[in-house]
Design goal:
Order of helices and strands: EEEEEEEEEEE
Structural class: mainly beta
Largest sheet: 7 strands, mixed
Number of helices: 0
Distance between the termini: 37 Å
Helix content: under 10%
Radius of gyration: 13 Å
Length: 119
């Protein structure tokens, strides 16, 4: 499985970015997907996940600001981010995973894309 993330960059607080992740080597439509992030000195943390059927879930710190979506025809998963804050600054990673109950577990990781939000 290969995952290629893109779309990161430098944006001012209050701005928006849309991250994209292209998947290959997988039956994409059958798998859950997620986005994690890792800020310097912090642990990698789950941001959002989406089931194979398109049901999404978000951590509280991004609810109402971030939207995860997928296009199974294109093997793509996206993360639309609005109202960005300096504390959203991190390397963002897409991954393919699975759900066990209500919990999402990543199985494969892509390389990260840097998101920097200036104040």
């Amino acid at each position: 499985v290969q995952l290629q993330a893109s779309g990161g960059g430098l944006v001012q607080a209050g701005g928006s970015l849309k991250l994209a992740c292209a998947a290959s080597g997988t039956i994409f439509s059958r798998n859950a997907m997620g986005w994690y992030r890792q800020a310097p000195g912090n642990k990698r943390e789950l941001v959002a996940s989406i089931t194979s059927g398109g049901i999404s879930d978000y951590k509280d710190f991004v609810k109402g600001r971030f939207t995860i979506s997928r296009d199974n025809a294109k093997n793509m998963v996206y993360l639309q981010m609005i109202s960005l804050r300096p504390e959203d600054t991190a390397v963002y990673y897409c991954n393919q995973g699975h759900f066990r109950g209500v919990y999402y577990y990543p199985d494969y990781w892509g390389q990260g894309t840097q998101v920097t939000v200036s104040s």
